[in-house]
Each structure stands twice: as structure tokens, then as C-alpha cells.
Amino acid sequence: MAVLPPDPVFSLRSPDMGAVHSLCFQENDRLLAGTLKGSVFLWDLQTNRSALHFEVGSEPISSLHHTPDRLVTQEKGGTITMFSIGGSSYVKERSIPGNHFGYCRSALHTGTSNTNEQLLFYPCDESSIGVLHVTDAAAPTQMLVPDDPQLPKLGSVTCFKPFESASQLFLLAGYESGYFLTWDISSGVIVDVVEVAPDATTVDYDPVTNRGIIGSPSEKLISFSYQRPSMQLQRGSELSIKNPGVNCVRIRSDQKVFASAGWDGRIRIFSWKSLRPLAVLTQHKQGGVMDLAYSSQPVSMWRAPIMAAAGMDGQISLWDLYN
Q: Which PANTHER family does this UniProt record tie to the protein (predicted)?
């Protein structure tokens, strides 16, 4: 007999919210959702009510990041906006006009070695990637431009993941062509170029277990690792999924599981150790699931770490799985 998929612990809905494109937790008991309409909704997970919502712009919110004192949004088209926390609301600090009309999402990296510096990586025009110091408005923006004439034609950047290895900061970036470049951020030098998957939509990597996962419009998830210390990317095994298309993959920080958010509305949970499928969550029945987020600590109401998922059906599902 087939095992029935588990149920969410709760589903958040608001008639004003509509489709959700991005999620992030703030201090575990608050969850922010970026919508198709260009608004941000703040949900209080102690009451499961929307405590606040405000408009950022008219374009969908592609990604959200929350630091202890700031909110960073990325709109479709690439515009980055920073907000400070002012009382019970958010106050706009500055915007950086964007010129990226693909689907690549920004990524926030908080340093763990020597510094807690917060760097925002965001897609720019063509193949370029911007690196912004979130906490220091005066610091110059670094640009990662793959302009070596010996490089293959890359196309636009489609996904990336910053990570630290041996106290060095790297960025793994995927491009339309299927090539993945690994950048050494301190020197701005490309240390590896390898062809993996065309039009990759999402990538995540865990440096502790030295394994990552790539999703794309295909019906395959591709695992990979790095050969250290040369930082050469090694392609691993493929995982087949029933229906093609993945918007997002997320490895949980305890390295027990990872999840994929599908175009088919399915959330697939896999063991990170064995890559074996564990569950298929079917709560979202209309349209794709756009984003996933994990709380870093237990959410007080559920006394457990929570995974949040959201997409085109206008609900945010909350899950307590394999903790």
C-alpha cells in the first residue's frame, strides 16, 4: 500500500496576498512572503496571522533576505531594495536599479570565518554578478564579470550559491549554456569551469558534507561535489522525478534532508545522506511551488523547526518533517 503524504501543521492564507514567489524566516517566529503583485507580507507564526504587508513595487518579488536589522528584496527585472526596521514597520533605505530579466535569484551570505560580513550576490546584465556589502553602504560594489576570451559562451546567469571552504569564500554560478563557474571571491578569479546542466534554475551546496544539488527544467536532479583543495566540481548521480521542472532546491542545515519545489506543485523530500526519496507533499494543487524556506531554530508554536513552502496557489504551507 502506498504511504499517504503527511499533512502540513498549518496553511497560511490571505485574500489580499495572492501568488507567492519568495519566502524567508525572520528569527523563526516570523515569516515573510514576497508576492507576484510586488508586495511583502509578514506573518506572525505565534498567531498565524498576517501582522503587516506593504508594497515594494509592481513586479514580482523574486527573493527575500532578512538580516538582524534589514530586509532585502529582489524584484523581477533585478532591482534590489534594502529596508531597515523602524518600529513596527520597514523603512526603505536604498534601491539599486536592476537589469536582469531572467529568473536568477539573489543570495545572501553571512561570513562565519573571521567576520560576520554580509554580502548580497545579485544577477546583473548578461553574465555579470554584483556583490554588495549589505551593512556598509559606502563599500564599493564588486562585479564578477566572466570576460576571459577563452571561456565558452555562457549566456545569462541563472542560479548561484555562495559558500565557504577552508576559510575562503567561493561562489558557484550556473549559466544558460549549462556551464557552471566557481569564483574565488577574494581574488575575483574563476577557479573552475565545467558543463553540467543547461538552463539550471536552482542550486544548493553544503560544504560540511561536500555535496550539492542542481535543479532545472528537466525531470532530473543532479548531485555534485568538489575535489579539494583544487575546487574542481565533480558531477555525481542523477535523481529522477516524475514530472519535469524544479523552481527551488534547499538543503536543510542539519544535513538530514533536502527538498525540491516542482513546477507540478509537488514538494519532494529526499534523504541527504542516501539521496533516497522520502515523501512527496501534495498540498499545493494549483500551479507550481515557487520557494522553500527552513527556520533555523524551532518555531515556538510547533516546538520544532519548520519548513515553509509557497507558490502560485496563494497559500503558504508549514511542515514539521523528519526532525
A: GUANINE NUCLEOTIDE-BINDING PROTEIN SUBUNIT BETA-LIKE PROTEIN 1, TRANSDUCIN BETA-LIKE 3
At 209, is the secondary structure helix, strand, or coil?
Answer: coil
Residues in the chain, pLDDT under 70: 1-3, 113-116
Taken as a whole, the chain contains a residue count of: 323
Whole-angstrom Cα distance, residue 245 to residue 22? 17
Residue 106 near residue 114 (C-beta atoms within 8 A)? no
Measured distance CA(145)–CA(149) in Å, rounded:
12
pTM for the whole structure: 0.95
**In whole angstroms, how large is the CA radius of gyration of the chain?**
19
pLDDT of residue 1: 42
* Secondary structure in 3-state letters for 98-109: CCECCCCCCEEE
Residues 6+ apart with CB under 8 A from 17: 33, 35, 39, 41, 50, 53, 314
Vertex 229: Cα angle to 143 and 188 (nearest 5) = 10
Q: What is the pLDDT of residue 214?
A: 98
Provide the pLDDT for residue 86: 82
CA distances from 125 to 145, 156, 192, 285 (A): 10, 8, 22, 35
